[in-house]
Amino acid sequence: MNDPARPLRLTGHLAGLDGVRGLAILMVMALHFVGDSSARSLGARLASKVANHGAQGVDLFFVLSGFLITGLLLDAKDGPHYFRNFYARRTLRIFPLYYMVLAALFLVLPLFVALPPSLELARQHQLWLWTYTSNFYVASQSNWSSLTYVTHFWSLAIEEHFYFLWPLVVFRVARGPLERICVGVIVCGLALRIGLALGGVSELAISVLTPCRVDTLCAGGLLAALVRREAGPEPIVRRSGRAALALGAALVALSLWGKITTFGVIVTHQVESTVYAFFFGALCLMSLQPRSSLVARAFQARIPRFFGKYSYGLYVYHGILTRYLLDIRAEDRLEAMLGDRSLAIAAKTTLGVGVSVLVAVLSYQLLEKRFLELKRFFEARKAAAARVNLEAAGGL
Description:
This protein is mainly alpha-helical. The protein has helices spanning 15-35, 42-51, 57-76, 82-108, 117-124, 127-130, 134-141, 154-172, 175-198, 203-208, 210-226, 234-238, 240-260, 265-286, 294-299, 302-309, 311-327, 330-338, 341-372, 381-386.
């Protein structure tokens, strides 16, 4: 499939995209297990600062989802049962784990134990979670702890909004107009973020509102349409490495601008988010390059692909575990045992990642996999022959 002598095809299992998804979840876990730590030593503070860039892992998830979902829809739109198949398959992938976790936390657990105050707070506002509108509640509170154990579900809400509306857009327009729609959404999304920021809306609210983030999904959608032009994916995939270098340089320049001066930072910060979206889009395309590419080999390696396979469960469970470790003051307890804060952070991170992986693998094998097997009843023949690797796509 990646033999440079053969034409590149967006069919079958594209291992590199598994690796991209793996990178995204590793970034997010680094943010929550390391970036949010109370570091004291110079080395630990540096590690925490680097890990805080893991917040962009959600943007990478959005770009990848936009790319995969738009590609799937474009490939399936001329086949039978377009809407039925798409929504049934998304439901089987997303809902079982999501609603099982909500039921376990808010319906089953209170029957056996008294909920800790922080989880009880989330339970009081659970309607926002059951209806996939938690991002609007988080925005209204402008507080990352507003839903405590499940605040991180805000990004799942945004993806669900995209899954609900985007199939209709793709179905109604041809690929060419779809490209222009994607560009329009990207421009309008950037303009909206800038306008809200200049109007004094909090950065947190801007970062979780669907209209302010859908442009990142459409950046992936734009690339999915571009690689399906008559010329095929080779031209744009071949240039993706140079694009990534240019976009990376732009990100460095924007970051330096923010450190050197405060002039126009409100605007440049929002521009930076858009540049990140296209940078991550370039990474997705680079993962499709021949294996002679160092980046492609890195994304197709076993470890990132492993994390990519279980990324949805890892995202759901690691956020809950992060809050639990905070509630029991795990860092302080480990520091008392180990005698060093840096060792405590390392131990907490190892414990957190290890438990998250264990639970995610068990969840996939015992629950999610059973529902995924039902997807075969909702797949048109054309989509089966042309789909991109989507078995773990959608839902973080």
